[in-house]
Specification:
Strand order of the largest sheet: 1-2-3-4-5-6-7-8
Order of helices and strands: HEHEHHEHEHHEHEHEHEHHHHHHH
Number of domains: 2
Strand content: 5-15%
Distance between the termini: 64 Å
Bound molecules: flavin mononucleotide
Length: about 350
């Protein structure tokens, strides 16, 4: 059995505190630009990368796949894989980039992921997951955590989930993010697998009671800070929010520091835009496209007067060749007109 490294690194305690509210790993969404933007609204929440597969880390363009801005801390890298030596190698490589946590994906049901035998299908292979995390822990300077489902297909969650937590925690993991629904590996698309299998929050709460020494975050279908606070009050250690944080970032993130962490209120929406400008300007100067950043900002004014104009201008114009900060000015016009 590998001994958990938790506690040996004082930084881990800070990351665990940040995990009281985290933004879920989302492929194509939570890239570095998205995380930079989210960080402007919450200093404290823990941000996850998109999943990066271990083979991609080993053979791919490392700075593109793993690079991030120092302002994004605390940030957790999610890896996909099921080959212990390969995952350990990926962890060693990622170590140079300074992530605050390494997470293993045991929840993603997409075909591509299943065919490589990783993601949610690993719920059926807890011993293999234990081998993977043991190898990752041995290679990692920071805490290794696991994001999982409550089960897959015909599994009985009440039986397999505690057995999974038992086996994987014996290998040294003591922090889990549990998406509170099964994944159905046949017949449902990844998108359907995020909505159709029913949520079972009581089971996740029961896991915290059964394994009080584990740090457990609940994920799935949570859309408001009210809900997040209610889960924390029920004894869960953390709440992970995905789609709602992406589509309505200000609603989810801006209140988080004051309500969840006892910190400062966030800047207002216009100030968030102002603070994005230098970051966007640097990106454009180095050959990047405006749309690569502004696509994550479409929901910033969600629910506010003029929000449709903001979305429309950014959607129509940010993708044009040569589009620059003047598009942001134009997108802000509808809101500024209404505010004055
Ligand atoms: C576009 C998209 C991409 C996702 N990619 C990943 C991923 O790379 N790794 C992962 O563990 N989960 C992934 N998920 C699942 C989310 O992390 C989360 O578990 C799920 O959306 C449920 O949380 P929510 O209801 O708060 O969105 C993805 C979800 C979405 C919407």
């Amino acid at each position: 059995m590998t001994t958990a490294k938790i506690g040996s690194n004082p930084e881990d305690a800070k990351v665990r505190r940040a995990a009281r509210l985290s933004i879920a790993p989302m492929m194509d969404w939570t890239d570095r630009h998205c995380r930079y933007f989210h960080r402007l609204m919450s200093r404290d929440a823990l941000l996850y990368t998109e999943m990066v597969t271990a083979p991609a880390v080993i053979h791919g363009d490392r700075s593109r796949l793993l690079g991030f801005d120092a302002a994004e801390h605390p940030v957790a890298l999610q890896l996909g894989g099921s080959e212990p030596a390969e995952l350990a190698e990926a962890v060693r490589i990622a170590g140079d980039f300074g992530y605050d946590e390494i997470n293993l994906n045991v929840g993603c049901p997409s075909d591509r992921v299943q065919s490589g035998c990783f993601g949610a299908v690993l719920m059926e292979r807890p011993t293999l997951v234990a081998e993977c995390v043991a190898a990752m822990i041995a290679a990692s300077p920071v805490e290794v955590t696991v994001k999982c489902r409550i089960g897959v297909d015909d599994q009985v969650p009440e039986e397999v989930l505690p057995a999974f937590l038992e086996t994987v925690s014996a290998a040294g993991v003591s922090r889990f993010q549990i998406h509170a629904r099964k994944a159905w590996l046949q017949g449902l698309s990844p998108k359907e697998n995020r909505d159709i299998p029913p949520l079972n929050y009581p089971l996740v709460v029961a896991m915290k009671r059964a394994f009080p020494h584990l740090h457990i975050s609940v994920n799935g279908g949570i859309t408001t800070l009210d809900q997040a606070e209610a889960f924390l009050a029920e004894g869960l250690d953390g709440v992970m929010i995905g789609r709602a944080a992406y589509h309505e970032p200000y609603e989810v993130l801006a209140g988080a520091d004051a309500r969840i962490f006892g910190g400062q209120p966030a800047p207002d929406r216009f100030e968030v835009v102002e603070r994005m400008r230098p970051y966007i300007a640097r990106h454009l100067e180095t050959g990047g496209r405006l749309h690569q950043i502004t696509r994550h900002m479409l929901g910033l004014f969600h629910g506010q007067p003029g929000a449709r104009g903001w979305r429309r201008v950014l959607s129509e114009r940010a993708n044009r060749p040569g589009a620059g900060l003047e598009v942001i000015d134009a997108a802000l016009q509808p809101m500024l007109a209404l505010a004055s």
